[in-house]
Design brief:
Elements: H1 2-38, E1 40-41, E2 51-57, E3 62-67, E4 93-100, H2 101-106, H3 115-122, E5 128-135, E6 144-149, H4 151-162, E7 186-191, H5 201-211, E8 216-217, H6 223-228
Antiparallel strand pairs: 1-8, 2-3, 2-6, 3-4, 4-5, 5-7
Length: about 230
């Protein structure tokens, strides 16, 4: 009996240490994120306002929204309208977001989240995808900000985003043939890199802004750090 109590005591001790370590790690992670997301990386000063882009969020995830066609790129040549269910060629804007493939394709709601998907995403053990969504128009609001940029900044942004896609032997983006689209105007493509607690969907979006020479966070894991840099006017 005494030996059994001793074993239970040791188990309880290790369990308590694990809980303290786990909660302490989360607290440290959130504290570091709160500090670094408030540090602003200034963009490249420019008076040129050649192209308007947008950042949008769904309450958790940040997308970069761009005109489908411009003097820099025609995105419909790379992510064809035909690869969406609606095949609506009248849409003028295209949103792109990078993230964990398991989250995108297997987690329609938080209730659908599987422990395996969460663990793989947290520790960079799964593959990633780029979610593409076409829009007819954009309207600024709590979840949408407009950013006017120069052609050079847009070229840098496009270069960053293009380099995030995986390509086949012909140099084309790899379309994910799935019935998990969120609506008639979206599609998924295989992406480079691994999602983790240190590099989230919002980290990717923040890095896209950095690459374009735009104002961004030093580092962020969540969308609200980015949106604080671009308050509604």
């Amino acid at each position: 009996m005494k030996q059994k109590k001793s074993v239970l005591k040791r188990i309880g001790k290790w369990l308590l240490l694990f809980i303290l370590f786990f909660t302490g790690g989360i607290a440290l992670y959130l504290a570091i994120e709160a500090i670094l997301s408030r540090i602003t990386v200034d963009g490249v000063a420019t008076k040129e306002k050649d192209i308007s882009i947008y950042i949008v969020n769904n309450g958790a995830h940040t997308d970069i929204v761009m005109p489908v066609k411009s003097g820099v790129i025609d995105w419909s040549a790379w992510v064809p309208y035909e690869q969406t269910a609606g095949k609506d060629t009248t849409k003028s804007f295209v949103a792109m977001g990078w993230g964990d493939k398991g989250f995108y394709l297997e987690t329609e709601t938080w209730a659908d989240l599987k422990p395996s998907v969460a663990i793989n995403a947290a520790f960079g053990l799964s593959t990633t995808a780029i979610h593409v969504t076409y829009y007819a128009a954009m309207k600024e609001g709590e979840r949408c900000r407009k950013i006017d940029i120069s052609r050079a900044q847009y070229e840098n942004l496009v270069r960053f985003i293009q380099n995030s896609f995986q390509t086949d032997a012909a140099g084309k983006y790899i379309y994910v043939d799935t019935d998990k689209q969120y609506g008639p105007n979206d599609a998924f493509y295989d992406a480079k890199g691994s999602y983790s607690m240190l590099y989230t969907c919002n980290t990717w979006a923040n890095n896209a802004l950095k690459a374009a020479g735009l104002k961004a966070c030093k580092w962020t894991a969540f969308y609200y750090g980015i949106f604080k840099k671009y308050p509604l006017q």
